[in-house]
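The passage that follows is intended for readers who have already worked through the single-chain material. We present the inputs for a multi-component assembly, then the predicted structure in tokenized form, and finally a short commentary. You are encouraged to pause after the input and sketch how you expect the pieces to fit together before reading on.
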Amino acid sequence: MARIDLRTLAHSYRPNPAGRADYALKPMDMTWRDGGAYALLGPSGCGKTTLLNIISGLLVPSQGQVLFDDEDVTAVIPEDRNIAQVFQFPVIYDTMTVRQNLEFPLRNRRVPEPEIAARVAEIAEALHMTEDLPRKARGLTADAKQKISLGRGLVRQDTAAILFDEPLTVIDPHLKWQLRSQLKALHRRYDFTMIYVTHDQTEALTFADSVVVMHDGEVVQVGTPEELFERPAHTFVGYFIGSPGMNVLPCTVDGRTARVGASEIALARAYAPRNGKVELGVRPEFVRVAPAGAGAESGGVPVRVTGVEDVGRYRIARLRLEGHPMAAILPDDARIDGDTAAVSFDPAHVNVYVDDHRVEGEA
Amino acid sequence: MLTLDAVSSVVDGETHIADVSMTLEHGTLNILLGPTLSGKTSLMRLMAGLDAPTDGRLLFDGHDVTGVPVRQRNVAMVYQQFINYPTLSVYENIASPLRVARLPKPEIDRKVRDAAGLLRLEGMLDRTPLELSGGQQQRTALARALVKQADLVLLDEPLANLDYKLREELRAELPRIFAASGAILVYATTEPEEALLLGGNTATLHQGRVTQMGPTLEVYRRPVNLITARTFSDPPLNILPVAKHGPTVSADDGTVVPLGERIAGLPDGRFTLGFRPHELSLRPSDAATGVLSTPGRVAVTEITGSESFVHVEALGQRWVALDHGIHEVSPGQTVTVHLDTRRCMVFDADERLAAEPIVAAAA
Amino acid sequence: MQTRPVNQKAWFLVLPVVVLVAFSAIIPLMTVVNYSVQDTFGNNQFFWVGLEWFDDIIHSERFHDAFLRQILFSALILAIQVPLGIVVALCMPKSRFWTAVVLVLMALPLLIPWNVVGTIWQIFGRVDIGLLGKTLFSLGIDYNYTQDPIDAWVTVVVMDVWHWTSLVALLCYAGLQSIPDAYYQAARIDGASRWAVFRHIQLPKMKRVLLIAVLLRFMDSFMIYTEPFVVTGGGPGNSTTFLSIDLVKMAIGQFDLGKAAAMSIIYFLTILLLSWVFYTVMTSSDASDRKPRG
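Having made your guess, compare it with the prediction:
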């Protein structure tokens, strides 16, 4: 396994990119730690697949370098990069048995027979597929096929990193949990560098130690799931992670108080007044809803209630604060009577954004 | 009103749909929930008249429409794949069912623009589908289904190929858009979470049979049998087989499960407890009685930023506990998990619901 | 138990096809069957002769020779056109423009009427005026398809390869186009050789179109008539007299209707049998996959 460095990497699908808008991938520097579990999260068209293809070598970047353990591999073809990849739709060799599928990458590299047998047996055991070895791969279920795809990457001793391109798309929800926890266990056992591309926040967050959020060809934040959740660096991260996403309300700040229209909201830190687009971000999970008027002494702000959705485990209250739509998550036994209420925010979890970027206040 | 009366479908000796009876009212949203190959698409094809049932009858507003082909019935269907006429503009795509119906031009124009407005496609009417994003392509397909003013609108996993956030957006809009049309809306999905967010009625499918149908939350909270509970749980339902002797209920290793008065009326014998991950916690419960606390070995933890999924092995079972906040527990570690047994569903030896969970919201 | 409701109306939809097939196939076939068991001396007088004609044909050396020639011809055609078609399909250019150009060029021979194909090659190969014949002659190669049986065979086979290989290539190309990119990417990452990619990805994915190609080319080549008839007329001697040419000689040249009818039936059954064999062999691995899973 290897550490992967990207140096001033950028890519454009146009031959002569003029402005920033022509770049599918805007210039970036990044390091992927050896043995790290990374998720590359973002909506379609954000450049995550482009980045993945550059790392795997299927695409040569228009500028910058890719280094595996300090060795420049920018121009090296995929088969010589020792990368394994699991695709969105299972790729297996139809005519072969499961065993032959797993042996295939080793056979191609002329590994001695006894070693092939030992590796395949070990990996099949790790994948819980020992019994399936003699079976034709074609007849297997989608999740078993994805495990074989992964297995073909794992059997090689020299694999530098394993890339996953939305590998759970065609898997049923129930099996997703199983497959994901198996994958986590495998990662712990073999400690491979793993880059997992997805648009699904749950998958990204539950899977990775470090999540790379991409938006419009740029990396907007790299962080642990906790950081992304509690301190989104960009309003896009707040919106994209969490369901419903973070509430973003236009405001003005002065010291430890933010004003949304006529309502005042307490902040944990002090902020100097700012120019530009100033917004306040608070996740629905950190919004408390109390009966109308009840919150006056505890800093409650009046809101209009436009709806409450019961989604079984919890409820989502749809609110309007000074006319701005926002959401709050309530426990499943909470009730709201009438169409007005008061909300209060946990000051520690209120973030301030200037022109979409989070700013740190002073203690 | 669409009524299915003991409908079955057998193709090449394989049962696709077995003895399904249900009634769908105008203006309702009906969800078919089940894993891949559980019969959702087969059932929709029967409802549409694309296939004729082997057995049973279909009644539309009291008229027998069994075997009446789809063209003679006013049905609209939207699929998981984005299906549009690739060479026609978005405008012509939406207008196509109206042109077939030979509506006057001004009326077509009005309806197309109304539908485009509802689905936020106003600016794209002159483009062809291939120039649109996936979400916009699916909006086009939905707009076409909408203008048709069909009596029956069938949506077969319409959001499955969309990005997570787009899915969230369209999912919120869909019921509202079709509510005004008075159509019977049928929506197939594999994801329990999606059913809960959509609301309406849910029919759970398993191997071609409808295991339960009713208001979505009702089915979620009071599944009539174990298979319905399993189908309607994501992450998967946790299970604990127990035996009842007089007033004591115990697991196979002798651990007493404090189910209290709820099971007093039940006969002695084997039962299965079913509980969803959010009923199982790593935090001690504040409930005074009815809590089962048992040691478990951590297999995997998954952290979403606001919540943690902890996979534990306890009492010989593999469970998932879902807790608020971040729980950094490492695999192999022993923890104590707490189960509020009031929230457990109790199933008898025939896997039928024997005792309902006590739902907080009902209190 | 209720029985499955049967919609009788469906039969009306099938009726036109039944009528059409009856007139175009079943009735002529029955006439041929009728002829095959009768003899006639003209004047519309027919005698019942039972299976005598079949007996005659099966023991006739002339039929044996024509039959063997036919088998050899079809075997050669399949052995050349199928691999060649696959190779051509694999070598198709990547750029859209050139793909279109090549596709049009390849479709050209398929659009030419069969007798014209024959005439083209008949002239093309002539030693006195044909481009091919003259070129070979001037290179010192003793080529003359009207006198040398081997030359005649080569001409007929090359002509058929020229005429029909594009069909196989087009079918294979369509099959190749349906393989998702991920398969090639995965194979590159697995370090698969060009041959392994072909053997384990392209060939299995092309299997269905190859089945169609093999069946079409087999049936067509087994029934070939027009082109060799125009080029060689079945000669020199009987060296390119294939079954259909022999059949026509017998029926029209000698007016041996009974014998020709018996031969037609044997011919027909042979094609049916061999096509079935091809089909069964090529789909056998599919069937074993479909067995219920353990």
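Commentary: The first strand of chain C starts at residue 38 and ends at 40. The beta strands of chain C are 38-40, 46-48. How closely did your sketch match?
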